[in-house]
Structures are given as C-alpha cells and as structure tokens.
Design brief:
The complex is a heterodimer.
Chain A (H helix, E strand, L loop, with lengths): L2 E12 L2 E12 L3 E5 L6 H9 L6 E10 L2 E2 L5 H10 L1 E4 L3 H4 L6 H13 L3 H14 L5 H4 L9 H13 L5 E5 L7 H18 L2 E6 L2 H7 L2 E6 L2 E7 H6 L4 H11 L13 E16 L4 E17 L3 E5 L6 H8 L7 E6 L2 E2 L5 H10 E4 L13 H12 L6 H14 L16 H13 L5 E5 L7 H18 L2 E6 L5 H4 L2 E6 L2 E7 H6 L4 H9 L8
Parallel strand pairs in A: 3-8, 3-9, 6-7, 7-8, 13-18, 13-19, 16-17, 17-18
Antiparallel strand pairs in A: 1-2, 1-4, 4-5, 9-10, 11-12, 11-14, 14-15, 19-20
Helix pairs in contact in A: 4-5, 4-7, 5-7, 7-8, 8-20, 11-17, 14-16, 15-16, 16-17
Chain B lengths: L1 E2 L3 H22 L1 H10 L3 H19 L3 E3 L19 E2 H5 L1 H5 L17 E4 L5 E4 L12 H27 L4 H10 L6 H21 L15 H37 L1 H16 L2 H18 L7 H19 L1 H17 L1 H8 L4 H38 L10 H11 L8 H28 L6
Antiparallel strand pairs in B: 1-2, 2-3, 4-5
Helix pairs in contact in B: 2-17, 3-8, 3-9, 3-17, 6-7, 6-8, 9-10, 9-12, 9-13, 9-15, 9-17, 10-13, 11-12, 13-15, 14-15, 15-16, 15-17, 16-17
Classes of the chains: A alpha/beta, B mainly alpha.
Chain lengths: 533, 456
C-alpha cells in the first residue's frame, strides 16, 4: 500500500513554549488513522499544521509533512490553496457553523467544484446531486435549493462530507465529526464514512476523544498527550494490549467499570412524578396571542428511590432537561403531579416552595456558564446557604463550612478567594457540585454533568458523585444522552423519546434485555469498546 | 464676600464626594483593590488618569463661586449688598486676564494686533499699521521669563513628587526614590511623575506668561483664549459626567427590567425607546431647550445673576441630553440581560430561591458592568463633542457661557478670514482632544481588566 501522508518529527512552538514535540505518523492509502487524546493534547493543531492553517503566532520549529511525495512546507501559499480542498479536505465538529447560512447547500458544494475542477454549470449540478446521493441525503434534487437551517444536524454533517468529497481528495481530515450529534445519527454518519472509504479507497485522519468511536472506526490508532504521541498501534492490538500507562487508564475510564452494589432492601420513594405534562405556548403576532403549544413533556411517570440514582436517557430534544426543570419548579407544570415526600410541588407558590428548594438541587452541563464569572468561589457556594438559611450563620463559621465542602469535592480549601475563570472544566464542575451540596439536598438533578468533559475527567466526576452518594445518601436524577456511563452511575434507567418515557426499569434489565424498539436502536447505535460486556 | 454655589456646583461636589466614598469602599475590599491595582499597572492608564485628574482639578477650581460685597457708599446699612457678578476661584486666579481685554484679534505671544488698523497721527495723515497690544510688556525677554517659569514649575512638581514618595515611604525614603527613578516600583510611578512634571511645568509656564502675554492669543473682542479654554473645561466635563449620571440609572433600570421580566414590561419599554429613538435627537433637544428658554424668559425673577441663568440653562441641557440619550445603552443592556438570564448560573440562583432583586444585583449587573463602563466613557466623549454640535445649531449652552462648542462655533467665521485666525479653534480642539483621548485610553484599560473573559 502506498503512503498518502507522512508527518515526520513535527514540532510546533508558540513563543518559547513547545506545543507539539516531534510528532510522527504515516497514513496509508485507504486507511482510517485515528488520533486520540483529551482536549489540549494537540490533535487539532496537528491537523491544522497539515492544512497549513496554523495561526501566525505558532511557528513550525522542525519537521516535515509530505503528501504523497510533495513536501507541504516547501509549497507557496498559492500552491497550497490548490492542495486544500482538492487533495486534502476537512470536516469539522460543528456543522452548523461550518456552513454559510445565506447560501443554499447545493451552491456551497458547487462552489468548491467550480474553484478546483472548473466544470460547466450543468456538469457541476449533476455532480453535486450525485454527491448528495453518495452521502445518502434523501431527495437530492430538491435539497439542492435548501438552506442550512432547513436541515438537521446529521444532514448538515452529510453536506459537509459532500463538500469534502467534491474534488476527490486523497486525504480527509475529520476533526471530531460526530461529537455534536446524537447517538443514532452518530452511528449513521460513522457508517457513511466507512462506506465512502471502502468505495473510494480514501485515507481518513480521524480526530476524536471517544475511545468507543475509535474502536469502531479506526485501522490504526495514535494516542496524544501534551503534544506528544505516546503510543501508536494497530487498532486490534491497541485495545487488546495497550502499552502506555496513560492509554491503559484512558481505556479504563472509557469502559467505566463499577463495583457491584447490593440492593438489599427496597427503599422508600423520594420523588414521584405522575403523568407530568409541560407545554410551552407558541406566541405570535402583535399582541402575543398563543397560537399553539410545544409539548416538551407529554405524560411522564417516574419515581426516584431514596439514596439511588435514576438515569434519564434520551436524544436531544426529547424533553429530558425539561423534566429536570419541572421538578425544580423552574418551568410551570401544565398537568400532573410532582410529589416530593408526598407533597405536590406543582401546587405550591414561591414562598411555600422555599423549603423544597433546599431539598432539590441541580448540577449543570456546561461548567463554563454554570458559575457567575464575577463572583468568587466562596461567594458562589455561600449564595444558596444564605438564601435558604442552611449551615452556620456567622461568616467565619460559614467560611469554615465552605472550605470543608471544597475539600469534600477534592478541591483545595484556598480556592475560596479565586474566580471561576482560573479553573479547568473538571474543577468547575466540582465547584458546581459543591454549590449544590452546600444546602444539604436530598435530591440532585444532574443535567448532563459530564458531557462537556474529557474522558478521564468524566470518570473522576462520576467517581466523586458516587462517593458523595455513599457518604450522604443523596439521590440523583442523572440526565444524559451517553449510554456508556449509565451502568457506571445509575441504579435505574428511564428511556425517553419525544416527551414520553418508552421504557423504564433497573439498569441490568434495560441494558441487557431491552424491550422497546427505540431502546434497542439506541443501544445498537452506541459505539462500543471491543472488550466491554 | 460669601460662598454661593450654583446647582451644577453642588452636583459636581456631590459627585466628587461620592467618588471619594466609593474609593474608600474599594480600598476595604482586597479583591477589588487588586483589580484597580492591575488597571494602573499600565503606564498609559496611569498617565491618562493623571491627565483626567488635572481636568477635574480645573473643574473643581471653577466650581467654587463667590460673591463679593459691593463697595457701596452707605456702608452703615444693615443688609450687606452683593455685587451682581459671581466669580469662581479660577476667575480670581486669572483676574489679570479678565481685566486685560484687548481690542481685537492677536496671535499667541504677539506684541501687536493681528490686523492692520487705520490710524490718524498728529499731523493728520492716515496710515495703516499694526497697533501694539495694551496688556503686553514689550521690553521683556521671552526666553529668560520662560526659563524662570519652567524652573518654578519644576520646583512645584518635584515638591509634589517628593511629598508623594515620602507618603509612599515603604523601605526608606531614599530607596523608594531610587526605585521610582529606575522604574522598578509595582505601579508605574515613574510615568506618573513624568506626566505630573510635564503638566505642572506647562501650566506654570502658561500661567506666568499670561501676566505679560496672551499665551494662546485673543479672540475677536480681545478676550484671552487661554482663559476661555480653561473656563470651558468645566462646561465640557460637566456635560460629560452629569449627563451620563442622569442617563445611567434610567438605562440600567429599564434595560434590565425589559430583559429580565419580559412580557408586557418588555413590550412597553421597547415601544418607548423605539419611539424615542425614532425622533431625530437634535430636534428633540432643540424643542426642549426652546421650551426651557421661554420659561426662563417669562420668569426673570428666578435668577439673581446672569451666571445663575446660564447655569440653569446648562442644567436643563444636561437633563434633556440625559433623557434623550439613554435609548442606545438601554437597548444594549436589554439584549445582554436576555442573554445572561438564560445562562445556567442564573438558573442555579433561581433553584436556590434567590429573589429577583438579588439576582439583578448579584448576577446581572456585575456581568453588565463592562458594557456600562465602556459605553459611559464613549458617551462621555460623545457628549463633550455633542455640546459643540448643539452650540453650532444654537441650542447648546448659553452664548455667554464659555464652552469649546461656542469657541468652535465662533471659529467658523475666523477660519474663512485671510489670513486665517487659527488659535481659537486650535485651543478648543487641543483641550477637547486631550480630555477625550485620556478618557478613552483609561476606559480601554478598565474594560480589559474588568472583563473576566479577557483573562487567560
């Protein structure tokens, strides 16, 4: 097999700081080469260096990149422009921002063909349509005149792939192409990429942080950390026999092994939601008349036992976050009851709710927006205590309480006087957890708390949540779209689709023997590691 | 003699006192103090702040008004009669300039008038000649006097600096002095001292020269341009600061309410500012000023002096400007509040049962602060410039009041003369430019430091 891309001893510098340390790898024809690593490990920098799209402040201190036999660094900018798009194409993580919203998708694909191949108008159009067929976009002729906003996320990613394939490149760089997509759509896009590879004998540089996706896609794998490649191997040997300790821990974190828990007694129900309906009015016109309703949650019944975790699984838009908000009484309940310790929260007013606000707390998805950037960590944690009158009243004692809390979530006590921007994503998520814990809640609603985090950080946070549950007996409602973490954290699972719960039961039962079609489909779509159960 | 404060004087002093109180509050919180410390670590910010302080100093000098008792013949009468004119401290300092009014235009440091006049001599023949200026001493050596003035300026400024080093005295006076000299102090005091020296030397030189010359020339009726420019500082700074002060609470209150509460509150506020901002600003201001003008004309008894009258007109202008200029900031704040109120930390606060007012105070306002700050300073510069435009249209400050706008307005015709009279426009421009530039540079730095997103 001939080699398509050779990267040899590539080192990048910003000022005096080294970003990449002699990175070397080769990609052969028709091969999918996966570059794995956590955020900041230098995966995307490597791909930018191959495209020669590095920002000016970053300089190449040594190394060589060869496409077939051309050294890319010796080309002029004009020659490089011809290489980009024609010989090397790229698809990105966020298909929404990679497409121009004011051009039809057909025009956007046609533009690339026109620039690089210089075909006639009619020839271009027929080519675009055949490309759309190739990426399995339905009704390609009509879709030619559609605008990006009319397409779903998965369809947009298909258009991006069509643009990338337009000029028959030798190498396709896919930078986290499925991270922003739901599981079922991710599975479709991955299959599509594999089919195209087989059909065109295309080389793909696949950049991702998701080990399970790697296991499904790659022929060969390289693991990166701090700008260095730690390990490079064939996919099978990589998963069967990882060499580097970091790789081992990554694989272990991705697998999410948990010690078995004994379910000795049947505990009391802490929260019971019955036939919950949350409708959002659609308002239109001059006087804001209500013209219809969005049925976000449409008749949901679920219950959370004391000291246990219920995982609520579903794709984006299925209404799972709205359930969380309704339990927190942050959105009005249209119908149904939310019973917490036999008290219907939906019927209480703001003042009567206050004692229950202390008992139900929330941890958010995005650690960057969950903390007020203008407040110090100490004040962020203090806010709930002050508002709900929990914990000591004296400031000195409060400070002590907050410091203890920070230690409890494995942070340092002296962080009290720091601001959120000084912390990493995982640390911020710990602060968010400490904030919720400060008021000693009995139920914490975790709204996708790990989906914005790296694999190793994710497993740390999950571990912390489990530890806290064992210590204080708090219950969790764990909202997630990631099936791989469900067995790690949850005791029970509820699967949600279009505002309704389609299946509910203990983790073992649902994950091993799913009953509903949708659950089966979800479980089938989720990429799996080779040696997990 | 008695102290008689105008309305705007009271507002200025109130503002200064609240600024002092605020800085005292800041000095008690170590975090905020650290932030301001970071702001002044930039030498540009330091120099700009000192320039602004200089402007503020002149504003304050000009904001203490006195009325002298009249030298009447019947001194036995019980009630003390006061003169019709009020004078500020600045007027007292520049009393010689007030008296030394020339006949007409003269260039800076000139000894003769700028244009030839027809004179008839003893023999009855008429000829054209440059008449000598009345209040300029011809014999004096300009260089010698200048050097003397610079020397005095250096002494005064070094006195200030030595006092300041003595006050900062951390590890011995001499060590501190050496550190400042080499620029090794935490804050860029060397730049600060250089700015002070520069400003003090320039002003001493101007002041000492003003006894013998018209440093920046004279205007059409022989008034001293330097004096006019200095008097204009108060007008400019006042319009800039007080207008933003009036406009700010309205904009913040309405903008945040519209963004946070939504629904009909949002609708009402939106309709209000859309309507207001669709009326041309100048038209609205002109209408307001004319109404006020009529009101003042029908009640001449309201004012004892012409200065009070001019002052009230300034105050009204400030209010009208404030009422018409809140819409832009309000719109910005509404959009930003809408954005912030959807962010999860606000949801977290709601989940803690925190009240709406506390959410506004603790979560929303601090995150709007950088927008408020930057738009205040931009508005400040804009308002100083707007004053010039309004005076040009004739709806600005009172024509008797010294302002850069009035100076520029007059300079319109002077620019068309041949040879051109450039110094009025030039002085107004330079004074205004330095003020606006310093404000912009400082605000730039404040924004960079206070915006948490700029930190890496």
């Amino acid at each position: 097999m001939s080699t398509v891309l050779t990267v040899k001893d590539l080192s990048l510098m910003i000022g005096r700081e080294r970003l990449l340390r002699s990175v070397s790898f080769e990609i052969k024809k028709g091969e999918i080469f996966a570059l794995v690593g956590e955020s900041g490990s230098g995966k995307s920098l490597t791909s930018l260096a191959i495209m020669r799209l590095l920002p000016d402040v970053i300089s190449v201190s040594s190394g060589e990149i060869k496409l077939k036999n051309n050294s890319l660094f010796s080309l002029s900018e004009l020659q490089m422009q011809k290489i980009r798009g024609k010989s090397i194409a790229m698809i990105f993580q966020e298909p929404m921002s990679a497409l121009n919203p004011v051009m039809t998708i057909g025009e956007q694909v046609a533009e690339v063909i026109k620039i690089h191949l210089g075909l006639k108008k009619e020839a271009i159009k027929s080519r675009v349509i055949s490309l759309f067929e190739e990426v399995a976009l339905k009704e390609p002729k009509e879709r030619y005149n559609w605008y990006p906003h009319q397409l779903s996320g998965g369809q947009k990613q298909r258009v991006m792939i069509a643009i990338a394939l337009a000029c028959e490149p030798d190498l396709l760089i896919a930078d986290e192409p499925t991270t922003a997509l739901d599981v079922t759509i991710q599975a479709q896009v991955l299959t599509l990429l594999k089919t195209i590879r087989a059909k065109r004998d295309l080389s793909i540089l696949f950049i991702t942080h998701d080990m399970a996706v790697v296991a499904q896609m790659a022929d060969r794998v390289a693991v990166m950390r701090y700008g260095e490649i730690l390990e490079q191997a064939e996919c099978k040997t990589f998963f069967d026999d990882p060499q580097h300790p970091y790789t081992k821990s990554l694989l272990k974190d991705a697998m999410g092994i948990r010690e078995d828990r004994k379910t000795a007694d049947v505990p009391d129900k802490l929260l019971e939601v019955e036939d919950l309906k949350v409708y959002f009015p659609i308002k239109k016109g001059f006087f804001q008349r209500t013209v219809g309703y969005v049925k976000a949650v449409n008749g949901v019944t679920l219950s959370i036992p004391k000291g246990k975790t219920l995982a609520l699984v579903g794709e984006s838009g299925s209404g799972k976050s709205t359930i969380g908000q309704a339990i927190l009484s942050l959105v009005p309940v249209t119908e149904g009851t939310v019973k917490f310790e036999n008290q219907d929260l939906a019927k209480l007013n703001q003042t009567a709710l206050k004692p229950y606000r202390q008992k139900i707390q929330v941890v958010f998805q995005d650690p960057f927006s969950a903390l007020n950037p203008r407040m110090m960590i100490g004040d962020i944690i203090r806010e709930g205590m002050m508002s709900l009158g929990v914990g000591p009243k004296k400031r000195a004692l409060q400070d002590k309480y907050i410091r203890e809390l920070l230690l409890k979530v494995d942070l340092k006590a002296e962080y009290v006087h720091r601001y959120p921007h000084e912390f990493s994503g995982g640390q911020r998520q710990r602060i968010g957890i400490a904030r919720a814990l400060a008021v000693k809640p009995e139920l914490i609603i975790c709204d996708e708390p790990t989906s914005a985090l790296d694999v190793s950080v994710r497993s740390q946070i999950l571990k912390l949540l489990r530890k806290l549950q064992q210590e204080s007996g708090v219950s969790y409602l764990f909202i997630t779209h990631d099936l791989s973490i469900v067995p790690v954290i949850a005791d029970e699972v509820a699967v949600m689709k279009e505002g309704k719960i389609v299946e509910q039961g203990s983790v073992l039962k649902v994950m091993e023997t799913p009953q509903h079609e949708y659950t089966k489909k979800l479980l089938k779509s989720a990429p799996k590691l080779p040696n997990s159960k | 003699m008695k102290l008689s404060l105008l309305w705007t004087d009271i507002m200025v002093w109130f503002l200064v006192i609240s600024l002092l109180a605020w800085s005292w509050v800041i000095s008690r919180s170590p975090q905020v103090k650290k932030q301001w410390h970071t702001i002044f670590k930039s030498s540009i910010a330091m120099a700009s702040a000192i320039v602004l302080l200089f402007y503020l100093f002149f504003t304050l000098l000009d904001s203490v008004h006195l009325r002298f008792s009249a030298q009447s013949a019947e001194s036995q009468s019980q009630t003390v009669q006061y003169e019709g004119e009020m004078v500020s401290l600045l007027d007292l300092i520049f009393a010689h300039n007030l008296k030394g009014t020339e006949r007409t235009y003269s260039a800076p440091f000139a000894t003769h008038e700028y244009a030839k006049s027809i004179i008839v001599d003893k023999r009855g023949t008429t000829r054209q000649a440059y008449l000598p200026l009345k209040y300029v001493s011809k014999s004096d050596d300009l260089m010698k006097k200048s050097l003397y003035a610079v020397f005095i300026g250096l002494i005064i400024s070094s006195l200030f600096i030595l006092l300041h080093i003595f006050w900062r005295n951390r590890d011995g006076f001499w060590n501190e002095f050496k550190k400042s000299w080499r620029g090794e102090t935490l804050l860029p005091w060397r730049i600060a001292y250089l700015t002070v020296i520069f400003l003090v030397v320039i002003s001493t030189w101007f002041y000492m020269m003003s006894f013998n010359y018209h440093v920046l020339g004279t205007d059409k009726v022989g008034g001293d341009v330097l004096y006019q420019s200095l008097k204009s500082i108060r007008t400019g700074v006042l319009i800039g600061i007080l207008t933003t002060l009036i406009m700010l609470p309205v904009a913040v209150f309405l903008g945040v309410s519209a963004g946070l509460f939504g629904g009909w509150v949002d609708d009402v506020i939106q309709y209000l500012y859309t309507t207001l901002s669709s009326i041309p600003g100048v038209l609205l201001i002109a209408a307001g000023v004319l109404v006020m003008q009529v009101m003042m004309d029908t009640h001449p008894g309201w004012f004892e002096t012409t200065l009070e009258r001019a002052d009230l007109r300034l105050l009204f202008l400030i209010m009208i400007l404030g009422i018409t200029s809140w819409t832009g900031l309000c719109r910005l704040l509404r959009a930003e509040t809408l954005k912030i109120s959807q962010i999860e930390f606000v949801t977290a606060a709601k989940a803690f049962g925190v009240g709406k007012l506390t959410i506004i105070r603790r979560h929303i306002i601090p995150n709007l602060m950088h927008i408020i700050l930057i738009s205040v300073v931009l508005d400040f510069s804009g308002l100083v410039l707007a004053e010039a435009v309004l005076s040009y249209v004739g709806v600005g400050v009172d024509p008797t009041m010294y302002s850069w706008g009035n100076m520029i307005n007059q300079a319109r015709l002077e620019m068309a003369r041949e040879p051109m009279v450039w110094w009025s426009l030039f002085s107004a421009f330079v004074f205004m430019f330095i003020l606006v530039l310093a404000a912009n540079l400082l605000s730039d730095r404040i924004q960079t430091v206070l915006d948490p997103r700029n930190k890496s």
